[in-house]
Amino acid sequence: MVVSLLPYRALRSISRSNLRTLSEKLQGIAPATGVSCAMNGHVNGGPPAAGMAPSRGVPAAGGALAKGGGVDKAADFANYFCTYAFLYHQKEMLSDRVRMDAYYRSIFRNAKHFLGKTVLDVGTGSGILAIWAAQAGARKVYAVEATVMARHARSLIAGNNVDHIVEVIEGAIEDITIPEKVDIIISEWMGYFLVRESMFDSVIYARDKWLKPTGIMYPSHARMWVAPMRTSLVEHKQQEFQHSMADWGCFLQDTSDHYNVDMSCLSNPYKEEQTKYFLQTSMWNSLYPNQIIGQPVIIKEFDCLTTTMEEVSSVRSSFKLPFHPGHSRLCGFAGWFDVHFKGSPTDPADHEVELTTAPSTDETTHWGQQVFLLHPPLNLQDGDILSCSLDITRSRDNHRLMDVKFVHQLERASGEKTPLITSPYFIE
Ligand SMILES: C[S@@+](CC[C@H](N)C(=O)[O-])C[C@H]1O[C@@H](n2cnc3c(N)ncnc32)[C@H](O)[C@@H]1O
């Protein structure tokens, strides 16, 4: 397994401008392997350098799906769970102040929900949410963690004197059993653009099996957002792609001259591979609000109490993106999410709390935003509206990664419509 030396979560402690510079540098130096963890880490992790394990959940290429279509548990464990077993990785999440403050406030400002209640923490990691639930007055907390991080959680929980309340259970939520149904399910399950990692599945599974009919979900709601954006990354990625193809040309020549083999029949598959890697894979970025050039729209809302597996496994949405006046170029789309802690309809929160991962100058999160670049960018005129449909499904080879299809068309103020464009992307 590849362990990240400079995981991007750690960069929370680096100033925002340094983070940007580092991100850009690293995006420029990683080799285009086209496969494996290195590719995932480079493209999506933004800051992590080539060969480093990608960040949140780390699904590597290589497939977590078994031949029959079900999840291959061993591969899933090796590809997805592996990094969550490292303290450095948990520390990066624990250092995300926006994330931490939101969960902390949601629990302690709504302590009435926890007082004397039973709680299930799905994916307890270090045990932080379970500890807070106990400190807020829970009678019993079941803290379930699939990886050996469960052992660290156990000692952290004992070290904070709540081991008489919190019981750590090492195992996947799908495989374990607890002796009773619970009043609250708490979990931090959100991946990039909300759905990457597919961990919400496990929370839904836990809810359907272990939550009392009167139970409450923490968080209770989640939303996915999309907005039009501008960025110089379009040129940057185009240049990288052109360099890579020029290098392929030299390689063909050298191989022919020195080794007498004509490799040109591989040119098309190579180009396809590089196109996917440089131009079609969405990127992690921490955008400034002024890079958003139109009104963000909510493309999907989930009520965590009622959402089904089917609803999360494929997200389809049609929407219109209006632009702020004065922008002449659309470089792509930014995607992010927020979650809310509102309690339940029968037992609403005293204090609703929001955790947002929207572009911000100071309230940045380790999730950042996912950027989907347009190659080439679209020329805009004032009054244009982009009519879009978005289709997010799970990757055929790895259910924790996503395939995205954007279909879009400009509607001019004059009523004229440009041809429909279909752009495929991959969230890796
Ligand atoms: C994003 S981390 C959150 C950790 C901790 N709750 C926090 O907020 O800092 C998600 C954790 O859930 C665990 N996890 C993911 N899916 C799980 C499953 N199906 N069963 C048990 N644990 C799971 C991962 O190993 C990881 O430690």
From TrEMBL:
**What is the E.C. number?**
2.1.1.319
A cellular component term, taken from the record's GO annotations = nucleus
Q: Which residues form the signal peptide?
A: none
Alphabetized, the UniProt keywords read:
Methyltransferase, S-adenosyl-L-methionine, Transferase
Q: Name one GO biological process term.
A: vegetative to reproductive phase transition of meristem
- Per the record's keyword annotation, is Cell cycle included, yes or no? no
Q: Does the keyword Transferase apply?
A: yes
Q: Name one GO molecular function term.
A: protein-arginine omega-N asymmetric methyltransferase activity
What is the catalytic activity of this protein? L-arginyl-[protein] + 2 S-adenosyl-L-methionine = N(omega),N(omega)-dimethyl-L-arginyl-[protein] + 2 S-adenosyl-L-homocysteine + 2 H(+)
Gene3D superfamilies xrefs: Hnrnp arginine n-methyltransferase1 (2.70.160.11), Vaccinia Virus protein VP39 (3.40.50.150)
Domain Protein arginine N-methyltransferase intervals? 240-410
Quaternary structure, per UniProt, is: Ring-like homodimer.
What name has this protein been given in UniProt? Protein arginine N-methyltransferase PRMT10
